[in-house]
């Protein structure tokens, strides 16, 4: 539900969604139009269809068990590299790279280069302290504004990559 949408905007929709569909099996058994009724007001109107299709695939092909690897996640409808990495990192606390605009900006600034997207993905993979992907991501997400296009320094993100706040990783 967070795809291209701020967390604060998603929370009330997410709560209603979980109340109506508390399990993947419940979501899989719903009518697509009912799912979309709950998700479409967030914009990006394809998300409800993807959530429904994912739930159906997980319920039918995986007996309701969610994929546990990036490769398995990427086989789900609408799940790309970023989403698979985010799910692995945030939901399962497993190491997986996430590369969005802010992460790319931070890595480019910190390492002083403008590498290709492919090189940035590789750099994002190497930058994760082993076993600490979730801890590594939290300060970056909490401080997304610090890595905005107008920010001059990547070392201003608390807890990240040599920041003056050493409470992070």
Give a description of the structure.
This protein is mostly helical and 169 residues long. The protein is 53% helix and 0% strand. Residues 161-169 have low confidence and may be disordered.
What would you report as the Rg, rounded to the nearest angstrom?
A: 18 Å
Overall form: globular
- Strand count: 0
Number of helices: 9
Rounded average pLDDT: 83
**CATH class value of the largest domain:** Mainly Alpha
Any idea what the CATH architecture of the largest domain is? Orthogonal Bundle
Low-confidence stretches: 161-169
Main structural class: mainly alpha
Biggest sheet: strands, sense, closure? Answer: none
Q: State the helicity in percent bands.
A: 40-55%
CATH topology-level fold name of the largest domain = Endonuclease III, domain 1
Beta-strand content estimate: under 5%
Give the CATH superfamily of the largest domain.
Answer: Hypothetical protein, domain 2
The helix-strand sequence is HHHHHHHHH
Domains, number: 2
> What is the terminal-to-terminal distance?
28 Å
Give a brief rundown of this model:
With 169 residues, the protein is mostly helical. The chain contains nine helices and no strands.
Features:
169 residues; 2 domains; 9 helices; disordered C terminus; mainly alpha; 53% helix
Element layout with pairings:
Blueprint: H1 7-20, H2 24-28, H3 32-39, H4 47-61, H5 70-73, H6 81-91, H7 101-111, H8 117-127, H9 133-142
Helix pairs in contact: 3-4, 7-8
């Amino acid at each position: 539900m967070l795809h291209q949408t701020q967390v604060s905007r998603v929370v009330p929709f997410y709560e209603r969604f979980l109340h109506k569909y508390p399990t993947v099996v419940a979501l899989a058994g719903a009518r697509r139009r009912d799912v979309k009724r709950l998700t479409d007001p967030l914009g990006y109107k394809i998300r409800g269809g993807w959530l429904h299709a994912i739930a159906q695939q997980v319920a039918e092909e995986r007996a309701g068990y969610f994929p546990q690897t990036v490769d398995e996640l990427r086989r789900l409808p609408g799940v790309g590299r970023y989403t698979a990495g985010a799910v692995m990192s945030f939901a399962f606390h497993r190491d997986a790279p996430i590369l969005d605009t802010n992460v790319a900006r931070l890595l480019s600034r910190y390492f002083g280069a403008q590498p290709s997207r492919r090189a940035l993905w590789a750099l994002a993979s190497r930058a994760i302290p082993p076993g600490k992907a979730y801890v590594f991501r939290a300060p970056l997400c909490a401080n997304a504004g610090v890595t905005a296009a107008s920010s001059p320094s990547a070392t201003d993100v608390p807890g990240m990559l040599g920041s003056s706040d050493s409470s992070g990783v």
